[in-house]
């Protein structure tokens, strides 16, 4: 009974965090984009610097009509937003938030993380196929090619870290960095590959082909509205947070830092990485699908393999 | 991928008359089968193609352009531009209007280069009515048409960046456009559709204070904004990868399709009406005509960016050489032209804007034909896009810098 | 160009772009918060031609000559001259209607008027859900003239 209660608490905690975090990040994205573009960003709804805007948005989206396009594949269409939420919530399980604070410190945490996030593709494809819309289908096809080809360098780029730390357990990797120094410095190549690949995994500019607005309207979620659309957004921002958090855990020492408690450091570092992602989003133009695949297979993949070999060689010599 | 599941009609093609629904979709059972016109080209039979309507409601169609695109996966097989959503019957309406009223109405054709349109009309009417405009008016017209060119090319920069997926360039371009619009408002009284030219000159003069302000704006654009534009977008590696070689047209094709302006100059032909058929006081001013090499989207965008600099150079010369005097010739309220016809043409930011005016001696045109550069450029869309990806199609259409108000008139 | 040069150049060009955006981020926004904060109208901005009132007599300057009506390209002005009981024409308009949905704010009516009876107002918040509401009567146009802050020149400067 206690196990169940603990599990329920964890689930509720994660869901609350996902919502609050998404509010925060959507607001932050708007503010960052606003200030980068010399605008104010949202201010009208109120709160300090217009922070209530996200809450107002959620209320609006809840009140909206749940509209299903004619000829949609009913169950695929209905389930796709829910399916997109599942991996987004599930990955919080292994995040090393504080020195002793992990929801479930799995021995194969890193593998768990990457295998769960690959489910996102399923949701995108369900949405794209189920919508009975050509733009959605094009978006889903793009997302399929993209997520599949960037999954590989994403995983390979982390192996250098795993080799040094000698473990797949995220807590152990972070703990290794407290003695060893942050892996960012040794694994800078790995980090760059990881960062590029994770931006691509998140479908964010310059890799936002799956929802490339000027080309295919909104990609796979063209036909969604109201709360279903909001669930895609929640999942997207939750993924942004978790993949930044993974980057922090692997390369920037996770909760490691002086004076402040571990979880503060963890959140702080994660939000800085998130900010960099936003900064990139509002700077760069979009890449084309064939260039995207070229970059993934012909550049990132060889580089990450070379990084693994180099790391292994150095470890062997040492 | 999805093609293997037989989701798409076997031989859809030119003349497919279905909406966005996919025929034979497993979830529907009721999706309409596309109706073929019976003119599907033989090479399409047996290929699994998909027809998508891009526009008239689409985030990047520059107004209400509709492209009927046949896709093979991501590759554009065929694209048919469909126009007419913004038709306002300009040419017929002005047959019933007196000449002074046509000038402000012509603003609405290419609403991003209103001054150039007005000048085209004024030049034709002034020629047929034997009106000599004062020298100050001639210089000020050049000044305003170059300022308009800067404004229009700034918008091009912003929207082209947007077409390529970069949003911030758009806002930066509008930041400068706002300043320029305020300048325009101070001089002409309006922000976009100026109605500033009159038959015989300009409606009102500009003050010295305004000219100083303009000079400050030019310094700002040249010193700060322009390098920023280049650094943020044009020199960016992703931008270069997206544009170099894309939507390429050769010199022969450009001439054959009647391209003009930056589209023609991007292919390397130094054809600029300001040089080759000077009007107003352009023959007294010194400037270069930037040309490209390859005729791809990168070159046409680059030509426009360089033209901003040349326009600044021209305006600086105008400011130095600006003669004093009246800005409006003595013209009777009812302008009458002598019978005859005249084709006046000016170099608008998009290319050659031509007004063919036929007069029967009255105070209204007998016939007025408007030559719109965007209309000619739009015909090149299939030439530029077929065989490329969807994203390239958007870039190619963006590089044409079409204004649908001018295409449909 | 070798692979390393290409990667280096790509990285450099992107670094330049990011430097620009982060620099802009720490500048003041250039936008205004519209309903609370309104950008000023430039001297001579045009929005809608309105009827001028003679300050001394309180009467309209308009004598209903109809020159503006004839000079208006889209024919959006309609004037009916006042007539007294005997059927004699009076020098003021009985009705003066302006269809703002057609008006293209070209200023030609003002230039045509020999009596200085029309002027451009600087009121732009005139949108309406009903197209009929955009037909302005004589009284409404006079009212607009009274409420609009005086521009009186530049764009409407007499030539």
- Just name the CATH architecture of the largest domain in chain C: 2-Layer Sandwich
What radius of gyration of chain C results from the CA coordinates? 25 Å
Counting DSSP H or I runs of 4 or more residues, the number of helices of chain A is 13
Instruction: Round the mean pLDDT of chain C to the nearest integer and report it.
Output: 81
3D shape of chain C: elongated
Task: Average the pLDDT over all residues of chain A and give the rounded result.
Answer: 85
Largest interface (C-beta under 8 Å): A-B, 44 and 43 residues
Biggest sheet overview of chain A: none
Describe the global form of chain A. globular
> Quaternary status of these chains?
heterotrimer
> Ranges of chain C with pLDDT <50 over ≥5 residues?
153-159
Q: Please report which band the strand proportion of chain A falls in: under 5%, 5-15%, 15-25%, 25-35%, 35-45% or over 45%.
A: under 5%
Overall SS class of chain A: mainly alpha
Q: What is the CATH class designation of the largest domain in chain C?
A: Alpha Beta
Estimated radius of gyration of chain A = 20 Å
- The beta-strand count of chain C equals 5
Number of helices of chain C: 4
Distance separating the two termini of chain A:
50 Å
Q: Classify the helix fraction of chain C into a percent range.
A: 25-40%
H/E element string of chain C? HEHEEHEEH
Largest sheet of chain C: 3 strands, antiparallel
Description:
- The complex is a heterotrimer of chains A (318), B (409) and C (159).
- With 318 residues, chain A is mostly helical.
- Chain A is built from 13 helices and no strands.
- Chain A has helices at residues 2-36, 53-63, 74-90, 109-117, 120-130, 134-165, 170-180, 183-186, 188-201, 213-216, 226-251, 262-281, 289-317.
- In chain A, helix 1 crosses helix 11, helix 3 runs antiparallel to helix 5 and helix 11 packs across helix 12.
- Chain B has helices spanning 90-93, 99-106, 114-128, 135-163, 168-188, 208-234, 237-243, 251-256, 262-265, 273-276, 297-321, 373-378, 381-385, 390-400, 404-408; strands spanning 50-54, 66-72, 75-82, 197-198, 201-202, 340-348, 351-359, 367-371.
- In chain B, helix 4 runs antiparallel to helix 11 (297-321), helix 4 (135-163) packs antiparallel against helix 14 (390-400) and helix 11 (297-321) runs parallel beside helix 14.
- With 409 residues, chain B is an alpha+beta fold.
- The longest helix of chain B has 29 residues, at 135-163.
- The model of chain B is unreliable at 1-38 (pLDDT under 50).
- Chain C contains four helices and five strands; from the N terminus they run H-E-H-E-E-H-E-E-H.
- The N and C termini of chain C lie far apart (63 Å).
- Residues 153-159 of chain C have low confidence and may be disordered.
- Chains in contact: A-B, A-C, B-C.
- Chains A and B meet through helix 3, helix 6, helix 10 and helix 13 of A and helix 4, helix 5, helix 7 and helix 14 of B.
């Amino acid at each position: 009974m206690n196990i169940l209660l603990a599990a329920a608490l964890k689930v509720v905690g994660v869901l609350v965090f996902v919502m609050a975090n998404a509010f925060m990040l959507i607001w932050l994205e708007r503010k960052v984009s606003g200030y980068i573009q010399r605008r104010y960003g949202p201010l009208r709804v109120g709160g300090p610097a217009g922070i209530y805007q996200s809450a107002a948005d959620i209320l609006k989206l809840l009140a909206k009509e749940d509209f299903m396009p004619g000829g949609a594949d009913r169950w695929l269409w209905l389930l796709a937003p829910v399916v997109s939420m599942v991996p987004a919530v599930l990955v919080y399980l292994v995040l090393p938030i504080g020195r002793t604070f992990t929801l479930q410190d799995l021995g194969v945490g890193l593998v768990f993380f990457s295998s769960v996030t690959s489910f996102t593709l399923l949701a995108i494809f369900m949405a794209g196929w189920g919508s009975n819309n050509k733009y959605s289908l094009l978006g889903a096809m793009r997302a399929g090619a993209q997520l599949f080809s960037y999954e590989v360098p994403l995983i390979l780029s982390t192996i250098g870290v795993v080799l040094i730390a000698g473990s797949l357990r995220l807590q152990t990797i972070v703990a290794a960095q407290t003695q060893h120094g942050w892996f960012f410095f040794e694994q800078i190549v790995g980090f760059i590959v990881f960062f590029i690949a994770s931006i691509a995994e998140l479908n964010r500019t310059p890799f936002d082909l799956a929802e490339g607005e000027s080309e295919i309207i909104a990609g796979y979620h063209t036909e969604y509205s109201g709360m279903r659309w909001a669930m895609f957004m929640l999942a997207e921002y939750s993924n942004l947070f978790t993949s930044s958090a993974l980057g922090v855990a692997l390369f920037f020492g996770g909760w490691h830092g002086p004076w402040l408690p571990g979880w503060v450091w963890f959140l702080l570092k994660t939000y800085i990485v998130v900010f960099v992602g936003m900064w990139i989003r509002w700077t760069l133009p979009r890449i084309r699908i064939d260039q995207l695949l070229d970059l993934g297979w012909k550049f990132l993949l060889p580089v990450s393999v070379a990084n693994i070999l180099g790391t292994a060689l150095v470890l062997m010599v040492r | 991928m999805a093609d293997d599941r037989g989701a798409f009609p076997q031989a859809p093609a030119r003349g497919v008359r279905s909406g966005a629904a996919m025929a034979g979709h497993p979830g529907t059972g009721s999706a309409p089968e596309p109706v073929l016109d019976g003119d599907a080209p033989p090479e399409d039979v047996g290929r699994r193609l998909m027809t998508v309507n891009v526009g008239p409601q689409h985030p990047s169609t520059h107004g209400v352009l509709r492209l009927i695109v046949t896709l093979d996966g991501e590759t554009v097989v065929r694209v048919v531009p469909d126009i007419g959503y913004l038709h306002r019957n300009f040419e017929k309406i002005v047959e019933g209007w007196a000449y002074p009223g046509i000038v402000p109405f012509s603003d609405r054709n290419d609403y991003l280069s209103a001054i150039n349109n007005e000048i085209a009309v004024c030049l034709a009417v002034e020629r047929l009515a034997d009106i000599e405009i004062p020298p100050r008016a001639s210089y000020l017209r050049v000044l305003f048409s170059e300022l308009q060119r800067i404004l229009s090319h700034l918008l091009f920069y912003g929207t082209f960046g947007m077409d390529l997926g970069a949003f911030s360039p758009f806002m930066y371009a509008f930041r400068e456009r706002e300043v320029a619009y305020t300048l325009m408002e101070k001089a002409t009284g309006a922000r976009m559709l100026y109605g500033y030219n009159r038959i015989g000159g300009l409606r009102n003069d500009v003050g010295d204070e305004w000219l100083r302000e303009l000079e400050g704006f030019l310094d700002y654009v040249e010193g700060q904004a322009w390098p920023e534009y280049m650094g943020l977008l044009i020199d960016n590696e992703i931008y270069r990868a997206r544009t170099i070689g894309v939507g390429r047209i050769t010199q022969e094709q450009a001439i054959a399709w009647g391209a003009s302006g930056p589209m023609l100059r991007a292919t390397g032909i130094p054809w600029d009406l300001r040089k080759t058929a000077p009007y107003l006081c352009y023959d007294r001013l010194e400037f270069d005509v930037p040309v490209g090499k390859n005729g791809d989207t990168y070159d046409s965008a680059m030509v426009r960016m360089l033209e901003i600099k040349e326009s600044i150079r021209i305006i600086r010369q105008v400011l130095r050489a600006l003669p004093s005097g009246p800005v409006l010739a003595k013209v009777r309220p009812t302008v009458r032209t002598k019978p005859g016809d005249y084709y006046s043409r000016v170099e608008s930011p998009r290319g050659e804007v031509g007004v063919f005016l036929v007069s029967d001696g009255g105070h209204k045109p007998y016939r007025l034909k408007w030559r719109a550069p965007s209309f000619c450029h739009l015909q090149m869309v299939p030439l530029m896009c077929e065989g490329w990806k969807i994203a390239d199609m958007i870039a190619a259409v963006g590089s044409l810098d079409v204004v649908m108000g001018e295409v449909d008139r | 160009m070798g692979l390393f040069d290409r990667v280096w150049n790509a990285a450099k060009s992107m670094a330049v772009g990011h430097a620009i955006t982060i620099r802009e981020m720490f500048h003041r926004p250039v936008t205004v918060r519209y309903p609370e904060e309104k950008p000023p109208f430039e001297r001579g901005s045009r929005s809608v031609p309105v009827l001028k009132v003679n300050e001394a007599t309180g009467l309209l300057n308009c004598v209903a000559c109809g020159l503006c009506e004839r000079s208006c390209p889209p024919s959006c002005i309609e004037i009916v001259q006042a007539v007294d009981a005997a059927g004699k024409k009076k020098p003021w308009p009985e009705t003066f209607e302006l269809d703002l949905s057609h008006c293209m704010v070209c200023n030609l009516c003002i230039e045509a008027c020999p009596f200085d009876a029309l002027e451009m107002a600087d009121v732009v918040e005139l949108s309406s859900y009903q197209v009929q509401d955009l037909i302005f009567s004589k009284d409404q146009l006079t009212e607009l003239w009274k409420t609009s802050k005086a521009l009186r020149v530049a764009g409407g400067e007499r030539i």
